[in-house]
Structures are given as structure tokens and as C-alpha cells.
Amino acid sequence: MVISQLPNLKEMFKPSHSRGVNARHVVTEPEQSAGTDNVIEVEHLNALYGDHLALRDINLPISHKGVTAVIGPSGCGKSTLVRCLNRMHEMAGGRVEGRVLFEGEDIYHRGVDAVELRSRIGMVFQKPNPFPKSIFENVAFGLRINGRRGSLMDTIERSLRRAALWDEVKDRLNKNALALSGGQQQRLCIARALAVEPELILMDEPCSALDPMATLAIEELIRSLAQEYTIIIVTHNMQQAARVSDETAFLTMDTDRAGYLVEHGQTRQIFTNPSDKRTEDYITGRFG
Fold this sequence. Notes:
Blueprint: E1 38-49, E2 52-63, E3 66-71, H1 78-84, E4 94-102, E5 105-106, H2 114-120, E6 121-124, H3 135-145, H4 153-162, H5 166-169, H6 182-194, E7 200-204, H7 212-225, E8 230-234, H8 238-244, E9 247-253, E10 259-266, H9 267-272, H10 277-283
Helix pairs in contact: 3-6, 4-6, 6-7
């Protein structure tokens, strides 16, 4: 039983009693309420860098609102997958085959404006990356790029409040953002992403460079934001995935190092009764 080997998760999930199978490629679709559409539909996605295949035949639905965790061993293409969802993959010289539907529209269609797309699908990176500007100007950056004029103060305050940072910085908005702590800088980057009112937020290991207290603050923020936003988070931390996510997607890779999706489902099911032996082996630390 998977959960017996993860004592820190016992309070989160109740154990199940059925065994999984070891099929080549088992995907468990998460249960969804009637009438609920997916915000993202990844269909037969291949991601390539030159001749190297980084991801093979990914099919993955992402539900409206809530948090989806993407887990898997290093090098299996987790970061590549999330970067394909707002076309940052191609900024690194990559290309894709297949389709990524966002609100029913293929984001790789020739008529789609990639810059406008990234304002609708925000990104928070592994290492906090505030600009060497004031706290105010960091949050205002995307607004100005998108042509917002006039007073931005209401939007700045709202974004900082949503990022649980307002009370800590409201008296020093004109101070350099680089003077903030690491955890504060990451929340500032989240506020910067929120300012342009995205519909989806991608987070690529947002806590990996933070201490435990800052990590806790970011996790609490993620759960709070999940009431308003769809969030996809890449994480190596199994406990973190269990704490913050509603659904989990597990990727691994072949001998040619092409990543593929093994299993996707409700986080409770993935962590207590996975459908694939490889998922169980990864979660319990037998490999990865």
C-alpha cells in the first residue's frame, strides 16, 4: 500500500486496498462535475529541441480552477511541458507537434499572438526573478507593457494583497525589490503575474530556492489562489504535491530520455492507489 510508506501524508489521505497494474501507459482521468469544461487540453503533444524528442505523445486535460501538480524524475520533461502551455518552449529554440487547446483554441495556430497569450497564462519561475526596479514598478511592469495608462495603484494593491505581500511592503513600494527576502521576492513575482489578470498560472518549482518558512507561505498562497485561478505547479517534493494539489500528473521517461505521461488523476488516488506500478515506485522513492 503506497500510503504506508509516506507517513507524512497519513493525515491527508485515507489508504485504499486495491493494487495497480503495470501497463505501458495508463492514464486515469480525474472525476469532474457535470458541465465542467477543461481550461487546457493537451492532445498528442510532442516537444522537440532540434532532433531531440523531449516529450512524447502527451495527452492531458487541466480542469478549471484548482491546482494540478506535475511530478516525475529529473529530466523527464516536466518544465518543458509547462513551458509548452504558454509557448515559452519555442523561445528556447524548441518546437512542438500536436495541439494545446486553451479555452478551446489551439495556442500554436498561426493567428495566435504569443505575447497576448502569455498575459493570459502567467509564469512563475524556479528562482525568484524580480526586476532591479521598485516594488511598485515590478508589479506595474506587465500592466505598462499591455498599454495600461493612468493610475495603477488600485491594481498594484489588489495584486500584492492577493499575493499576501501588501502588509509587508505597503510602506516601501518605492524601495528596490532586490532588497526583499527570497520568499518575499517570489510572492512579488506572483503579484506581478496576477496584476495582468491571467486565467492560468504556471509555476515551475516555485519553492525550490526557498527556506521552509518561505515555502510554507508560498504553499498557503497557492491554495488560496486556487479558489480563483487554475494553477499548474511542477514540483520534486512529493509532500508538497500532496499538500497543495487537487490533481496530479506523473511523467517518466524512456531510455531515449523522451518524457511521457504515465498517469493523471485526483491527487488522493495517485498517492494512495495509483493505477501504475511505476507511479507507486516513484512516490515511495524506489526510483527517481
